[in-house]
Amino acid sequence: MSETQPIDALRHLEQEALSAIAEAAEERALEEVRVAYLGRKEGKISAVMRLLGTVPAEERPALGQEANRVKEAVARAIESRGRILAGPGGGGHHDLTLPARRAWKGARHPVTQTIDDIWGIFRQMGFTRARGPEADSEWYNFVALNTPLDHPAADEQDTLYLVDSVLLRSHTSPVQMRTMEKHDPPIRIIAPGWVYRRDTYDATHTPVFLQIEGLVVDEGITFVDFKATLAEFARRYWGPDTQVRFRPSFFPFTEPSAEVDVKRVITRPDGTRQETDWLEIMGAGMVDPNVLDNAGYDSERFTGFAFGMGPARIAKLKHGVDDLRTFFDDDVRFLSQFAR
User: Fold this and answer.
1) d(Cα 183, Cα 215) in Å, to the nearest integer?
2) Residue ranges of the domains in the chain?
3) DSSP single-letter state for residue 25
4) pLDDT digits (tens, 9 = 90+) for 71-109
5) Tens-digit pLDDT profile for residues 205-216
6) Which class in CATH covers the domain with range 110-338?
7) What is the CA radius of gyration of the chain?
């Protein structure tokens, strides 16, 4: 066999393949061209390359070199044409009327948004932000807050103990004592943070949740200041028509103590207004004199009030969410509706 015959055949197939590639109007047609010329079994160029074993040994290097060149040239042409067909304005079957795919964007979690909104209101009222350790001692979590260790709340069935008297705080109230130990009155703080309890994970409880503590201590603080401050917060957060109710309650570290409820006014899409039922939003009260004494304050001179609320519960009420666990499921479809 003459060396020029296979080489001529290869060059003829190269021109034929390049012409077919240029005429391919869609990706499927381009794939058919690739199979017809470069396919291992039926490819025309591949068939010529299989003749290498039948030509004389001295002719094989030149034929092999030309065969590789033609194969690479056709492959590059197919790749180039494929990018054109797949790109914007290409000849492929692309529906340009379809909506674009939006890029994912991050957003604050609805509970984080609630904390920020609450903090923003109290900051305008002169409060500062404080924090404390999540692993604390029995003294700060119970004893200093007028809660004896034989109180049911200190039992291992309710509290998560780590070692000896060290535990995971069951509320953010220890920040009260730590703040009073470091600073003299007047004190006006908000302390958000994680707390831990042996609660069942259900629609209204979680074993780990966020809480917001508030504390005000100064000379001459009265129950009137206590009610006015929390009522003002409720109206700023829930709306100016919000009604506020204080129900007698009991907490070891406040006396007197109260549960704070709100009744909201909701405006429906049709413009009608409707009142909700009473909703509990926090526990609060005047700081017990024993707590002030434990902090080294003169309880005859200073008075104050404290309050605690769960931002997840407030977010649940605000957004009409039935199950508290929904906030912890990491369902992007649910969380994306709260993006700001």
Assistant:
1) 13
2) 4-86, 110-338
3) -
4) 888 888 888 888 887 765 544 555 667 777 777 777 788
5) 888 899 999 999
6) alpha beta
7) 37
